Amino acid sequence: MTFQQPQATVATPIESIHKFVIAGWTGRDPQQVRKHIEELQVIGVKPPSTVPVFYEVFPSLMTTATEIGVVGLQTSGEVEFVLLKTSEGLFVTVGSDHTDRWLEATSVHHSKQVCAKPASARAWPLSAVIPQWDQLILRSYSVLNGRRRLYQEGCVTGMLAPEDLIARYERSGGDFSPGTAMSCGTLALRDGMEFGERFELEDPVCGLILRHSYRIKAIEIAS
Question: What pLDDT does 12 receive?
């Protein structure tokens, strides 16, 4: 993974991440959190007992690959900003919390563990975007029959701010030490759940965008 800084680019291997946390139900607006919970209840997902929820998964799931493998057709991704802490400080990138929706109805934590989590190979120092943080925009797109369609869009104000998320994680007993990555929750869907394969994080103040896209290779479920 490459971290883009104002005056230099520092190459940091993704293998340096030794802990990966997926934060769920991280919305600032309780009504939007409820909407997302209801979206998942439609497919049988039990509501959480408390929010936000922090699911630790294997760090090897985080990838900058442009293709991931899944089992079956009931999987989908959602755009999220991703925080990364290194010995050089905090960085932010954009990623997709790709999840097995069939398994999610049984166990959210297990459903997070069985899918790779694609992320951009580029990131920004968090300090460079914190002054305009609430103006950053997340988007994801789906491609159906060759046509790109907006799947999600909204400001990062939809989610708890980075320092708030980190503080809540540490109050829950977590340790956000160097080598930790956290995928920080998603936006409500525009029209219902499907596969969003392109995603981006835009800083309209500086005119910069982090992007990534990926394909799915689905293995048929053996009968």
Answer: 45
Residue 209: how many other CB atoms lie within 10 Å: 15
Structural domain includes residue 223: no
pLDDT value for 9: 40
222 inside domain: no
Residues 108-113: contacts with CB under 8 Å, at least 24 apart: 108/24, 108/45, 108/46, 108/48, 108/53, 108/55, 109/55, 112/22, 112/55, 112/57, 113/57, 113/58, 113/61
Here the CATH number for the domain that contains residue 11 is 3.90.850.10
Torsion of CA 103, 104, 109, 112, to 10 degrees: 80
Task: Write out residues in the chain with pLDDT < 70, as ranges.
Answer: 1-15, 190, 192-197
Residue-range definition of the domain harbouring residue 96: 2-217
